[in-house]
Amino acid sequence: MASKNTISSAAMLKQAPAFAEDGLPFNTHVAQQASEWLVLLISGTATDEDRHAWEQWRNADPEHGRAWRHIENINQRLHGIPTDIVLKTLAPNALRNRRRFIKALTVVLLASGTGLLVRQETPWRAWTADYRTGTGEQRKLTLIDGTLIVLNTTSAIDVDYSDTLRLIQLRTGEMFITTAQDKPTATLMRPFVVETAEGTVRALGTRFVIRQEDDRSHVAVYEGAVEITPFDARDQKIVVPAGQALSFTRHTRDTFLPADENAIAWTDGMIVAEKIRLGDFIDSLRRYRNGYLICDPAAANLLVSGVFPLKDTDSVLASLTDSLPVSIHYRTRFWATVVHK
Amino acid sequence: MTTADTMSHEIESLYSSHHSWLCGWLRKKLGAHCDAVDFAHDTFLRILTSRDLFCIREPRAYLATVAGGLVAHHYRRRAIEKAYLDALTNLPEPETPSPEYSAILLETLIEIDQLLDNLPLKARRAFLLAQLEGLTYAEIAQQLGVSVSMVKQYMLRATHQCYFSRSL
Questions:
Q1: Looking at the domain assignment, is residue B73 inside a domain?
Q2: Residues A170 and A296 in one domain
Q3: How far apart are CA A199 and CA A212, in angstroms?
Q4: Degrees to nearest 5, angle at CA A59 with A56 and A61
Q5: What ipTM does this complex have?
Q6: Is residue B164 part of a domain?
Q7: What pTM, to 2 d.p., does this model score?
Q8: For position B145, which CATH number holds?
Q9: Beta carbons of A75 and B131 less than 8 Å apart
């Protein structure tokens, strides 16, 4: 680790030459000196003597002056934005915000100090998965044993079947599973297990839906039953029977809720609302849509009912304006706000 | 033949020999998705506007590298947009920027992110805390749980990266 963070001047020399805004490159040596001066001047411990020496350096050569103006130009842009937004967006405090920004799978990467936070976001991981869907897309798969899987929007899974286990890893998103009887030639029935960031879910002959959320997994069972084993509470196996739904974390579970049939309308490309708060409806719709979709708090408590196709979220929004006192403001095609009239 | 002629000839043959392969490659990576064609288009556009067309020895490996970079950049941008929006929702109401200002902020953030490309998280945070918050290195060291000399190393690396390493 230490060697990685140490600056190697050889590595720096290999980097592409730096250019100023006038398009002329800087001499690597001058660039290095300017960087060192800046690091000294903003350290909080620079003395008057240091500042005096820096001024001498800056005036000693026109190239030094040009390098310094280049730094100041970029600084102007740096300082144009509220500090807390820059920090929260580009370099969040890892401990406080990690749940908001990354999945449990990536915590290991962060702890070892490698890479950028945004690099570790789920879409990038999902890109290398066995099967994935884009925003607004649903995809049906039939696995080799006859198990049917429907992937919902922005989802990714790895399929890992071995002689002893049928394992699906849910990396992100949501899937609906109808398990098949394992092939009769198998000497033993291989268990069917889904692994999420929080634990494993073993199917006991079943139809169920499983969703990876920010810091928990959600399971709803429509037929048969599943057995949940949270990663940090392996002795506490939880059986979820048909008609029930449950969210769990690595070490604990929420309370049981009834499994909502409307919640799996997406497997038919639909979203079904029965007197749902508009704010909650927009939260659901957002998953199927590229770009930003915001609901004005003044409109969030209006109630929505209806069956809407997920294929075209623009027309879903348009139809809201027919039945509710709202209008849709498009700032760009990718930035829509639902506002109260 | 002029250089421009050679260039357009090169890109033409690159396009006709490998465009459908690239679309297939992207589709396999991205899943069944119409984005593949867009990314392929952007890939050729990127190559057209760069000047290193003459030194392509392995055209498909090269195309895959450029296309992979574009896809990564796309996801990265989306990730920043999301983090930015999350940051906004945490602001108290009066501080919420106007939509116009908000769009400018986002573009600037993406620009700064590119300046700090490839820096480890702690180096980024050290640099931004020193530059924007005016914290001393001792204060930053305490916040990040590292030594002051480590903060200096982060700062040197980040400073050089931010101001002088951008390959344009």
A1: no
A2: no
A3: 11
A4: 115
A5: 0.71
A6: yes
A7: 0.44
A8: 1.10.10
A9: yes
> Does residue A7 belong to the interface with chain B, where contact is any CB pair within 8 Å?
yes
C-alpha distance from A72 to closest chain B C-alpha (Å)? 10
Per residue of chain A (341 residues), what is the pLDDT tens digit? 333 333 333 333 333 344 555 667 888 889 889 999 999 988 888 888 888 898 899 999 999 999 988 888 887 777 767 777 777 777 766 433 333 333 332 222 333 333 333 333 333 334 456 788 888 888 888 887 888 899 999 888 888 887 778 889 998 899 999 988 766 554 557 889 999 989 999 998 789 999 998 889 999 999 889 999 998 888 888 999 989 999 999 989 999 999 988 888 888 888 888 888 999 999 889 889 887 888 988 999 999 888 888 888 888 998 899 889 999 988 777 788 899 98
CB nearest A85 (choices: B103, B105, B123): B105
* Number of domains present in the structure of chain B: 1
Residue A282: give the domain boundaries.
269-340
Structure tokens at A174: 């949501």
Report the residue of chain B nearest A293, measured CA to CA.
B85
**Minimum Cα–Cα distance from B33: chain A residue:** A134
Whether residue B29 and residue A139 make contact (CB cut-off 8 A), yes or no, is no
Q: Check CB contact of B51 with chain A, cutoff 8 Å.
A: no
Q: What is the CATH number of the domain that holds A198?
A: 2.60.120.1440
Query: How many structural domains comprise chain A?
Result: 4
Scanning A41-60 for CB atoms below 8 A from B yields 42-45
Give the number of other Cβ atoms within 10 Å of residue A330's Cβ. 12
Strand-pair partners of A261: none
Inter-chain contacts counted by CB atoms under 8 A, chains A and B: 186
Q: Within an 8 Å CB–CB cutoff, is residue A165 touching chain B?
A: no
User: How far A237 CA sits from the closest chain B CA (Å)?
Assistant: 35
The CA distance from A332 to A314, in Å, is 13
